[in-house]
Amino acid sequence: xxxxxxxxxxxxxxxxxxxxxxxxxxxxxxxxxxxxxxxxxxxxxxxxxxxxxxxxxxxxxxxxxxxxxxxxxxxxxxxxxxxxxxxxxxxxxxxxxxxxxxxxxxxxxxxxxxxxxxxxxxxxxxxxxxxxxxxxxxxxxxxxxxxxxxxxxxxxxxxxxxxxxxxxxxxxxxxxxxxxxxxxxxxxxxxxxxxxxxxxxxxxxxxxxxxxxxxxxxxxxxxxxxxxxxxxxxxxx
Length: 237
Known about the structure:
The longest helix is centred in the last third of the chain and has 20 residues, at 214-233. The protein has eight helices and ten strands. Helix 1 packs parallel to helix 8, helix 2 (76-88) runs parallel beside helix 3 (110-122) and helix 6 packs parallel to helix 8 (214-233). It is an alpha/beta fold. The strands form four sheets. A three-stranded parallel sheet has the order 3-10-9. A three-stranded parallel sheet has the order 6-7-8.
């Protein structure tokens, strides 16, 4: 099933996005599988990797949207500076805000995330904030101008699935922004579950990068997100 949905001014049909994080193995096979078999339309890239020898930018095909992220930032100032660097490098106005409180679980700083979102939204960025799905924080992010919300399902790279399901379901009841579940989705069934409760898309990296058959896992994620979305639209009794 193919349908269209919006993030800010941009139209999408894909419900699966490829993320980058602490276990990002950016190989040509990973990106090719995400694009050709998972049918992703957006790939997140850490801004701190832009000048590295193995930067994924050269591997991303033309026509695929790039979502620069501020992985590695520990303050509002660092995140805003990274966003400015990304825009100066010609990567456009999309930005994923990741401001971490630790280097083990990559848990986001809610207050800094809200403030960085406010600053960058006022500067015209299409802001995708990554955060723990606390209801108050989600409402604040919507109020200050976020274009989409990216609540974590479980700790980054954990593959534990939708551990925050109850919180995300409450978030879905009160916000009007697209919700893209990020971090911790480790298999296709978990992606399907996230979509079935009403999320708009799923972002994953570790699940694909560590699969024995990467291409088949990418295809499974595409089918899972489509099936979960159809299940949500069916309004089961």
